[in-house]
Specification:
heterodimer, A: mainly alpha, MetI-like fold, disordered C terminus, B: alpha/beta, Rossmann fold, four-stranded antiparallel β-sheet, globular, binds adenosine-5'-triphosphate, binds magnesium ion
Chain lengths: 319, 345
């Protein structure tokens, strides 16, 4: 994976080094050699060295936790990742949890009361929402709610937090964070809620047809117990895998939304890095994406084991 | 097994029960004008081909039909231990929840899928107890006792997840769970079809013992005539949604008066008799959306006459035993045929 991104990025057109070299030659009338040396010192990086050599060096440093420095700002990439990752994890994670929770609950009730007004309205809503891409929702929010109707104090809501506010575990800071996260989180929830609802509905429908549900009804169980431990828990199983897969796409999915809302997460930084061809930063972010995909698979296994005793192997069998 | 002369009281009385499913082709009448009485301690076996409506009757009795199924008409009256009668069709959802399992429980067809895979047997027991106000300690003691009675290792099963149990163990677990709240009636839908012959044997023995000890009534659905003959006091033969013959088990099996019951008996293998011929009944059950006129069985019946093709035969009582009822025009001929067959063997 790291190898792949390493090669891929280096094949992209518009090498920043040669751009800089050309710029220096044009502006300061330097020779090619002088310009190359100057740019090399500036970037702390020599793209004209053989690929293989660059690669070995990169991998060696990677193993030591050194991701290199940004070609543009010279800030260590690791620092940048640690600075931006929490924002993305917070906003996308919150959005994912809210939409998953709501989707499961509503989807289950849709199936439980299938054919009712509630079911019909929600199915229509979910189908429409499912079809609209997230950036369209974001643009609609900005234009309609922010600019035309002025219901939202739009300008103040952009960014990650109010400039100048001092970070800390205080109520006003937390509220400020939530205030600024509202737009991206809301957008994530709206765009993914429909999918969760529809999947949960169909999963619940097939669970409702299972014999053990009829048997549980025959035992006179209370509605609440039936919905949670018997219907909900079984219908949720297939969705857990999807939830974990979504965790893997946290960073990748945030690029457009974070850019639109100027939210200081990894997604927006990926967009910027791509624009200015900041190789090392791009590599760092792709590495985060790769790690989160691997991590999400482990997460899926853990969650599954927690919810489904049939995959919890070997623990009590010995005794 | 003989019914005591002073007939015990009726616990469940069903009259003219009609149940239909809504299908794409129209209304499918799965149960048509079914009537019977179930006495205290009695076991009634429902036998008949696949699709004749046996499971539908059971689900209808406890009002757990799937959403497409409805009870169109008829009466279901249940008599509680204190003598009060309950109109099952008139129960509200809340009342029904209280009625289920405490008065009338069920062991379903297919034990493999009858248990929630993600919770332990103990949770299932506690859930059931909690729904009916039995406290945890009592539920646990009673469950362990019942597990013992159905020959399970009580502690192991109590703490197990369903997938850790074999098919036979699950079936016994279900049987024990059905008796948790000391119901008067237990509905059993083919409780022994999914297990091997030895397990089946032991489940039947366990059931017979428990029945003597706890004195509940059973409606026992089975394809297996030998099992039905062994366990039942009364047998009802069903065809195309109707009970076409019903009576004490010996009466029906040795002196059948309906061509369909005769056909079933001729099709059943008997291990005790070596080289008898088995006959299947030609044709297949009728379409229940548009049932044939007259006797529903006439298309497959070797005794059918014009009368059978036009007018449905009324239910009549056998002269030898007033508990034996049958809906057929040719009772005498059929009885004679069976007697000759038995004499030949
Ligand atoms: N949910 C349903 N929707 C429509 N028709 C149904 C439904 N369930 C059962 N039926 C029909 O009702 C009739 C009776 O079915 P039922 O399950 O009661 O038969 P059964 O006697 O229990 O059969 P088996 O011995 O195979 O279990 C069948 O013709 C079947 O096709
Ligand atoms: Mg059935």
């Amino acid at each position: 994976m790291t190898t792949f991104t390493f090669i891929l990025i280096r094949q992209m057109p518009g090498n920043p080094f040669s751009i800089k070299v050309e710029q220096l030659m044009r502006e300061q009338n330097l020779t090619v050699e002088e310009a190359t040396n100057r740019a090399g010192a500036l970037f702390d990086f020599d793209p004209n060295r053989p690929l293989l050599e660059q690669y070995t060096e990169y991998m060696g440093k990677l193993l030591r936790g050194d991701l290199g420095k940004s070609i543009i700002s010279s800030e260590p990439v690791m620092n940048m990742l640690l600075r931006f990752l929490p924002w993305t994890l917070f906003s996308v994670g919150l959005g994912l949890l809210i939409s998953f929770g709501l989707g499961i609950l509503i989807g289950m009730l849709m199936a439980y009361w299938r054919g009712s007004l509630f079911d019909n309205v929600m199915t229509a809503f979910a189908s429409v929402m499912y079809g609209i891409p997230d950036y369209v929702i974001a643009l609609l929010l900005i234009i309609v709610a922010g600019v035309q109707l002025r219901i939202l104090p739009f300008a103040q809501m952009l960014g990650g937090s109010t400039p100048g506010i001092e970070p800390g575990f205080r109520l006003d800071y937390i509220l400020d964070l939530l205030f600024h996260a509202f737009l991206p989180v809301f957008t994530y929830v709206i765009t993914s809620l429909g999918g969760w609802m529809l999947t949960m509905k169909s999963s619940t429908m097939s669970t409702l047809g299972e014999d053990y549900i009829t048997v549980a009804r025959a035992r006179g169980l209370s509605q609440r117990r039936l919905l949670t431990a018997y219907i909900g828990r079984n219908a949720m199983l297939p969705l857990v895998t999807r939830l974990a897969i979504s965790v893997g796409f946290i960073v990748g999915g945030a690029v457009i939304i974070e850019t639109l809302y100027q939210y200081p997460g990894l997604g927006r930084n990926l967009a910027t890095a791509i624009l200015v061809r900041d190789y090392t930063v791009m590599q760092g972010i792709f590495l985060v994406i790769a790690i989160s995909v691997v991590f999400s698979n482990i997460l899926a296994d853990l969650l599954f084991g927690l919810l489904d005793p049939r995959v919890r192997l070997g623990k009590e069998d010995a005794s | 097994m003989t019914v005591t002369p002073a007939a015990p009281e009726v616990v469940l009385s069903v009259r003219n029960l009609c149940i239909s499913y809504l299908t794409r082709r129209g209304r499918l009448r799965a149960v048509n004008k079914v009537s019977f009485d179930l006495h205290a301690g009695e076991t009634l076996a429902l036998i008949g081909e696949s699709g004749c409506g046996k499971s539908t009757i059971n689900l209808g009795l406890i009002r757990l039909l799937p959403p497409t199924g409805t009870i169109d008409s008829g009466e279901i009256v249940y008599r509680r231990r204190d003598g009060q009668t309950v109109d099952v069709r008139g129960l509200t959802t809340g009342q029904l929840r209280q009625f289920l399992w405490r008065e009338c429980s069920m062991v379903f067809q297919g034990a493999l899928n009858s248990l929630n895979p993600v919770i332990k047997i103990s949770s299932m027991i506690y859930d059931t107890a909690a729904a009916h106000g039995m406290d945890k300690k009592e539920a646990r003691d009673r469950a362990l006792d019942l597990f013992q009675k159905v020959r399970l290792d009580p502690r192991r099963v109590f703490n197990a997840y369903p997938h850790e149990l074999s098919g036979g163990m699950r079936q016994r677990t279900l049987l024990a769970t059905a008796l948790l709240l000391r119901p008067q009636v237990v509905l059993m839908d083919e409780p022994t079809t999914a297990v091997d012959i030895l397990t089946q044997r032991s489940i039947i023995d366990v059931l017979k013992r428990l029945r003597e000890e706890l004195n509940f009534s059973v409606i026992f659905i089975s394809h297996d005539l030998a099992v039905a003959a062994e366990i039942a006091d009364t047998v009802a033969t069903m065809y195309a949604g109707e009970i076409i013959e019903m009576g004490p088990v010996a009466e029906v099996f040795y002196r059948p008066r309906h061509a369909y019951t005769l056909g079933l008996l001729e099709a059943a293998p008997r291990l005790s008799v070596g080289r008898e011929e088995l006959h299947s009944i030609p044709g297949s059950p009728p379409d229940l959306v548009e049932p044939p006129p007259g006797c529903r069985f006439h298309l497959r019946c070797r005794f059918a006459t014009d009368e059978c093709r036009t007018t449905p035969p009324p239910l009549t009582t056998a002269p030898e035993d007033e508990r034996h009822t049958v809906a057929c025009y040719h009772t005498a001929t059929i009885l004679k045929t069976r007697q000759e067959e038995l004499a030949r063997d």
